Amino acid sequence: MTHTKIAIIPGDGIGKEVMEEALKILNSLQEHDSSLQIETTIFPWSSDYYLKHGRMMPCNALDILKEFDAILFGAIGDARVPDDVTVWELIMPIRKNFQQYVNFRPIKSLPGIASPLANGRDIDFVIFRENAEGEYSDSGGRIYQNQPQEMTIQNTIMTRIGIEKIVQAACDYAYKNGKTKITSATKSNAIIHSMKFWDEHTRRILAQSSTALELESIYIDALVAYFVERPQDFQVVVASNLFGDILSDLGSAIVGGLGLSPSANLNPEKAFPSMFEPVHGSAPDIAGKGIANPIAQIWSLALLLGHIGRSDLEELIVHAIETVLREGIVKTADIGGQATTAQMGDAICQEIIKMN
Ligand code: ATP
Ligand code: MG
């Protein structure tokens, strides 16, 4: 019996629309499986909330969220609210306070998706992006402002423990999932302090690991080319914050785009709730039209269920998504069809009921 509390933050734009479909699937799973006991609480924290209250979420939001086992997040973003507000007042505090130092993204080719880059190849790998330190730091600044010698310094901060944790998480995943190789993204030939440090500690963790995992370190410039030329060769890719960010978007483009790409911000120790969200944003250009693809959000729910110990349901959902895409009857506009968000959600839901 799994009794779990999940916080739901639909957010803005298509976030709200695709979240409805994920909840439809969660409810259906619960109806058909009495061992799945999930209590959901919906929080309306969004740009609308900001416009009413002057903040993206209440002061005690993190205390509230801490009591949950996981967070399912939609998307935020609204032309009336500056981008840095939505990111720094909602997403970042959650990621940082809950020590979600792993950003996990599966990159998997799907049937029936005409992606020129996937080109019919069987692509199935995951990216572990360091999510808490590295190149994305506020350390640095500008000097000699408005003078000819004006300059800026942007510091990268990497800690031994930070590298250890992300690499270990990648190794643990590899071990649990029968993978044999870890690919590390580096650039130690040019970024000689931080990236050499990254390489050294990555090598050390792999050497200490009780399982025999092959480690390949590849310069980021070569690695992006290999992602395109031979994406089928990767199993588990581990990368710093910046390199992981870039590789993740490329990975998602290879297999068919934003509407299909889920992600997880993980605190592997489970000391704090992890957060699951589609890679896409609020997509203001199509919001309100009911045509967004809900697959990325539904797959994010699948990752959440896997995280709380129900890998069987994760597999079930992914299988249902694959079956619907393989049949190719119900497709949203982004993947070449005309189905609505709700029709896509219904089709996946029906498939789950059939398989259950
Ligand atoms: P935000 O500022 O919230 O990130 P954005 O303008 O960057 O919003 P994204 O959500 O990142 O928009 O989307 C980029 C493009 O991909 C848009 O043209 C959008 O319509 C499309 N897109 C994103 N998600 C989906 C989806 N689930 N289904 C269909 N199209 C999508
Ligand atoms: Mg965006």
From TrEMBL:
Its cofactor is Mg(2+); Mn(2+). Keywords: Manganese, Metal-binding, NAD, Oxidoreductase. Its EC number is 1.1.1.83. Residues 5-348 form the Isopropylmalate dehydrogenase-like domain. GO terms for molecular function: tartrate dehydrogenase activity. The keyword Cytoplasm does not apply. Gene3D superfamilies: Isopropylmalate Dehydrogenase. The keyword NAD applies. SMART domains: Iso_dh. Belongs to the isocitrate and isopropylmalate dehydrogenases family. This is D-malate dehydrogenase (decarboxylating). It comes from Lysinibacillus agricola.
